[in-house]
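Issue: copy button drops trailing tokens. Both records pasted manually instead:
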Amino acid sequence: MLNPLPATLAALFLFIAPAAQAADSLDNRIGEALFRRMWVAAPTATQAADGLGPLYNARSCATCHPRGFGGRPPDPAVKGDQGVGYAIKLNNDPVYGRQIQSNAILGQVIEGRPRVTYREETVRFPDGGTVRLRRPTPVVEDLGYGPFAEATAMSARVPPRVHGMGLLERIPAEAIEAEAARQAAGGGPAAGRVNHVTVDGVRQIGRFGWKAMHPTLNHQDSEAFSLDIGMSTPAYPEPWGDCTPAQTACRSAPHGDSKQFEGLEIPSTIIGLIDGYLRDLAPDGGLEAPKDKAGTALFADTGCAACHRPSWRTAEDPAQPALSNRDIFPHSDMLLHDLGPGLGDQVPMGEANGSDWRTTPLWGLNRLAAKDGELSLLHDGRARSVTEAILWHGGEAQQARDRFMALPGDERKQLVRYVLGL
């Protein structure tokens, strides 16, 4: 059934295109249109489309997640390249806030231009093979509001793939808690933890984001509107987004909040339609058990499956029958793991420390297999291949990394093919 929409939104949907992978319903077509929508600065004659910024990173959700896929870091060899969705997180700088916004509406000053530099390192396998890793250093040029505070730390991020999030949202919370308890009691190197977060006074398990900071798809999408697009939602009602009290020009600029839209720029109806579209985006794989038995055995024997748990069963939900009672194979335990100083940052989030990261689901890599060696894996996109991503694992994953290193070359390739087939 179509969600009720204010009459003033009618013009917004004249350009609706068919949803590529979502269910063939009008709600999902509208949700996809809103996902692609290019928001504009206020004020405009059509209030349904304004409210961008004043400081922002992107004008649409699809800018950072083209076709639902992830982003990439800037290419240092290409002058002026800004990557796709590349952002610099901060540990709450008193002036710059939680994230650097690299764009601004007319009359405002951008916060800075995120860049990255790399130092290449060679890793040699026992059988003589080598791999080049690149160690990134995030940089922000042209700071618009003076220097960072002395205690400010930076951590780069690329946007993740968004397919399959509705199914991950339906994994029972008690099952995830039980998995954490099982790992803690097992005595092995992998001892994942839940990132408990409190939203609206309710303590919940974090599921989404690189550090599992968001308990629901709605909360994840709402923060993205606030930090990346600079627009208010019921969960993040500030119309100036991430602008701090020190940024007075941003806070006093025109905003798109309106009484007819719940006093917000993105009212509950709009964020709900976007949530619904994303919730129904099926993963590109992971709906059937892997058929590569030898690869499955290698994945388990090396210890990769200790964190990248192959399967879950989703909970019953009469309101979402397509997501209910499904056996899924995302290859993630949905938990935080300490992956060591090589991947660590100084930007803790909730109960996640600087070196803690949520186990990334691996499903959907089959769509990227042909570009292995040119990928943007891990939280900051540093790894160009599955092999590079594995070799960056330390901490709780150190033993699994070392077992992978010790494999004969043909078995390493077999394990990589297995991962790229998920």
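Record 2 (pasted manually too):
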Amino acid sequence: MTDPTYDPSSDGATMSFAQEMSYGDYLRVDNLLALQHPLSDAHDEMLFIIQHQTSELWMKLAIHELAAARAALQAEELARMFKMLARVSRIFEQLNAAWDVLRTMTPADYTRFRETLGASSGFQSYQYRMIEFILGNRNANMLRPHAHVPEVHAALASEMARPSFYDEVVRLLFRTVDGSSDAMPAPQLDRPHQADAAIQLRWKRVYEDIDRYWTLYELAEKLVDMEDYFRRWRFNHVTAVERVIGFKRGTGGTSGVQYLRRMLDVELFPELWHLRGEL
């Protein structure tokens, strides 16, 4: 049992922050906790807001890590890149776990405040779109919901105009296996990455000679691991939405569950999944 007379300052803990930076100061906790503004008196709206705000924070970190991972890959600092990719997988593990909290909200709970959302929808998350664009799932139509925020639209358009993270991985693959990236297919900048036979052939060589291509093999498995968590996030999204609103249209006008189910078929790194049937 804790001694009620214990004084942490006796062990050296700082207890006065008039001249020192505190935990709350560093994290700007007051600002953070002032960002939740329910628009109804429904109890569960606070849950809904915090669920999505914390998800956006995790996605901000994922973008931070993926951008650094791409820079590390371009600089051939692969050990640093591996750590960042592993962290992104753990971030999506956290995002997956968050759905378990949202599932405690019943359809009756959500109905009490759904109208206050207007046309707002997770479909419009520009950070989620940025993650998809970085990884290679690109669709120019997805820029349109962000046209009203010029700096966001410009950032997404800029990302779409450059090779994706996976394009950089493929360049490394060809350079290592072929000794040159000259035969590498052109990056698919403005559309979802589609499986390419030439890319799959190089990955097959890697998996058939792991000892020779251990670094590429390790990279491939980290990509599969990351996409595995990403797919689970999408699946959890579908089941959470179906559990709460059934097959109603989404607040943003999409077909709701039907739209989300179509997203389950998207493959970020298709060659790495398809080659498994050939090994």
